[in-house]
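Incident log, structure service

09:12 report received: a user says their structure output differs between two submissions of the same chain.
09:20 pulled the input from the user's history:
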Amino acid sequence: MAETRFKKTPFHYLQYLSLKVFCVLFVLLPYRFSVWLARTLVRGTAVFFPNRFKRMEYDISRAFPDKTPQEVHQIAVDSWSNMGTILAEFLHLTHMSRENFKKHCKVVGLEKIQKAQGTTGGIIHIGHFTNWEAFGLAASVYGMEKAVLAQRVDNPYIDEETNRLRNIFGGRTFYSNNGDQPFFAAMRWIKRKFLLGILIDQNATASEVWLPFMGRIAAFSPITALLAIKMQAPAFPVKVKREKDGTLVCHILDPLIPPTEYTPETTRQFTKQLVGFYEDSLREDPASWLWAHNRWKREAEGEAYLQEHPEERL
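09:34 re-ran on a clean worker, output below:
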């Protein structure tokens, strides 16, 4: 099934070539102009995805019932535009020297994960905020041995190119789909006292933990909590901010220490703690989050499950 889904086709190759030409042209443009242009162009594409954009507005209004329709619409527009910003920044950052990279992307609190590398290892706890890919690159540029847990995209040519760029300064990728079993590979990586980046603010399709997220039930993967508890490795929340001049600043916060004992209950509770960090970030700057994700895709299923298992409702 997975092999069929990710099989290379001529159509996939045409998609890849089109995107490759687009990317090459953007890299040739000046950095700031490229970011502005990508943001502007992507903002205009929202008209071609009216149903998705309406769902974004619906989700935002549910998460922030006190906001006016105008405010909700602006958050959706800014979130959609941010996808273009991410693309342009990512392309340029992957083509910079390490010295130039550090001028455009800075890290605050680096000493926290430097201490973990070589002692406990750790998990980089980051969500789809601002430009999460920039911190993945920055971790390698600033000397960290990191890997990321990612989902393979359907187009294998684009997936291979994205993975190449994602690790252009160093690092590895473990896939959580396509039939791969990343858990034990991730355990071995952390056992070597390295760092593993995981985003859990996306819909889980299996082995889920049902938790409230912005007032609604959502399916979360417990893998971050499981790895942290099993390996007794801290999770380091990371916030990425974009300054007015466009500089990306990655703030590494104090680590979240996992429970010492593994049980289904401690796993749920620690996952809830991790989710709470995302909620705080989202409330602080809602437009920075990738609302295009169908985050509450399984809400009805989750509510039904918790009706049958009330002891798991947190």
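09:41 both user submissions now match this output. Likely a transient worker issue. Closing.
09:42 reviewer note: The mean pLDDT is 93. Residues 69-93 form the longest helix (25 residues).
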